[in-house]
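Exam revision sheet. Question 4 asks you to relate a sequence to its structure. Input first:
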Amino acid sequence: MRKEYELQTDVLATIVAAAPVTPKHTDLLTTFAARTDYRGARHVKTRDEFGERPARILDADDREIAPDYRAWIDAELDKHGGSARAVWTAHKDAGYRLTEIQPVLHYFVHDRGEAQENFVQIEVWEEQEFVERELFPREEHWGLPNVDELRRGAPGMLVEHIERRTLGTPRYRLEQVIDMQQFIAIGNAAYEARRRADGDRRWMETNSTTGEQRVVTARELTPGYDQVRWESRRFFEDWAASSPGRAGERACLRWAFNTSDYTDPKGVRYMSFVPQWGHTRKIAELKNTGKLDVYSLYGKLTQLDERVGYRFAWYFYGLHGNLVKSGQMERVLEAAEAGLIVLPEHDYRVLRAWHEAPYGF
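Answer key, structure tokens:
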């Protein structure tokens, strides 16, 4: 079922699929400009860490045996009583080959301006089909794939490998289109509803000295309970309030957002995202800074700003957590409050608020 903030349509999926894959996605961006509402779409990030997945089955002469591997293997297992060995016995001498898809995920953004979260994020797979191995091992000396391995298309390494060949040209496939302003509004409402419900939970508190008991709520036991804000909303608020937002930088052109939306069996909804930086230059993690004086540490953080192209970037990289650590952020705050380094007041306020109510991704 399509979520309230999703904007993809069958027509848009067809338009994306018809665009040829070209360097820097020039044809796809032209297609967005000419045939959709996303005339200002820009490419932000590519993620290429995904593994291959099974696609089709071919014979030794590249004739298609089945267009969908998973549907075929499910049918074969049903036909042979769920026995992996029986399926292997039936096809081990056929020389069938498994084609696979190598996927790469691209993030595009259509920025509508004004509020930092007022943009549309378009996620598009680029997929290249290839073949490099037979489907079944020819011998059983070293064991046979089990049912789970067959369903996953991962029968192990003991199959006949052939020289890897690409099949056809890469193609695009639309994954999802997210109205991020809607995502934030709905996610924040879900978060606040969950916080209210959790805050109203009642507990029995017992005085360890007198033995007196009283009923208290989680809200009463947690100072500042109602001031806690949703992390995903805070990211954009912090961006707007600090140097990048004040300088006109748009968060959606610097970051992509890996969103999540889950409703548990009790009907409680959890929405979030993990920001993914959009820089393409190699940037090393800040390691072994414990022995550095704070001036040297802050110098390394400002070097990160210079490499990615905007001030106070290190704070948002610290929220992400892979390149900058929370302890390094704390040291900068301590140094600023001691007068050892100077932060712009608006950045200091954001950093101070994070210290008082830490969050990250």
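Marking note for examiners. Residues 234 and 359 are 9 Å apart (CA to CA).
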